[in-house]
Design brief:
Blueprint lengths: L1 E3 L7 E2 L4 E2 L4 E8 L4 E2 L4 E11 L4 E2 L4 E3 L5 E4 L4 E2 L4 E3 L3 E2 L4 E2 L4 E2 L4 E2 L4 E2 L4 E2 L4 E2 L4 E3 L4 E2 L6 H24 L3
Parallel strand pairs: 1-4, 2-4, 3-5, 4-6, 5-7, 6-8, 6-9, 7-10, 8-11, 10-13, 11-14, 12-15, 13-16, 14-17, 15-18, 16-19
Antiparallel strand pairs: 19-20
Length: about 170
C-alpha cells in the first residue's frame, strides 16, 4: 500500500478506512471513516486537494485527481466504480454512484442519490441533478429518476464495501 506524503502534505485516513496494498493515496487527501480503496486505485493529492466523506468505495483502478490549488470533493456513501475517473469535480454529493469506466470531469456537480452510468462522460461544468440517472457520451439524463427500489439496493451494496473495509485486513492476512 502506498499512502505517502507529497511536498510535505500527508493523507489523512479516517478510522476504519482500508487502502489495498496496490492502491496509491498520496498528498493532500482526506478520506473519511469506513472507506474502502480498492486494488489499483489512485487518489492523487499532489497539487490539488481531495476530500472524500465517510463510507465511500473507491473501486479497483479508479482515478481521483484535482487541478492545482483546487479541491475535488466527494460526499459520504459514494461509490466510484471500477476504472472510473473523477477529475477536479466541484461536488459529488452523498449516495452517488459513478459507474464503471465513467468519467466525471472538471467542475462538474452530481447531486445526492444521482447515478452516472457505466461508461458515461459528464463533461466540464455539467450538472447531474439529485436523484437523476445520467448515461451516454456526453451524459444525458434519463426520463425516470432514482426510486425507492434503487435506493434500497444501493444501500445494501454500499454497506458491503464498508464491511469490506473492516474485513479486508484480516482476510488478506495483514
Amino acid at each position: 500500500m502506498t499512502v505517502a506524503s507529497y511536498a510535505g502534505t500527508a493523507p489523512v485516513l479516517g478510522e476504519g478506512t482500508y487502502v489495498h496494498p496496490s492502491a496509491d493515496v498520496f498528498g493532500d487527501v482526506r478520506l473519511g471513516r469506513g472507506c474502502w480503496v480498492g486494488p489499483g486505485a489512485r487518489v492523487r493529492g499532489d497539487y490539488g486537494t481531495i476530500v472524500v466523506g465517510d463510507c465511500c468505495a473507491l473501486e479497483d483502478n479508479c482515478v481521483i485527481h484535482a487541478r492545482p490549488g483546487e479541491t475535488c470533493t466527494l460526499g459520504s456513501w459514494v461509490t466510484v466504480g471500477h476504472g472510473a475517473v473523477v477529475h477536479n469535480v466541484t461536488l459529488i454529493a452523498d449516495y452517488v454512484v459513478v459507474g464503471m469506466g465513467a468519467v466525471v470531469s472538471d467542475w462538474a456537480e452530481v447531486g445526492e442519490w444521482a447515478v452516472v452510468g457505466e461508461g458515461a462522460v459528464v463533461p466540464q461544468r455539467a450538472v447531474v441533478p439529485a436523484e437523476r440517472i445520467a448515461v451516454g457520451v456526453p451524459a444525458r439524463l434519463l426520463e425516470r429518476p432514482v426510486d425507492d427500489a434503487h435506493r434500497a439496493a444501493w444501500r445494501a451494496f454500499k454497506q458491503r464495501y464498508v464491511d469490506l473495509a473492516r474485513d479486508y485486513p484480516a482476510a488478506l492476512g495483514r
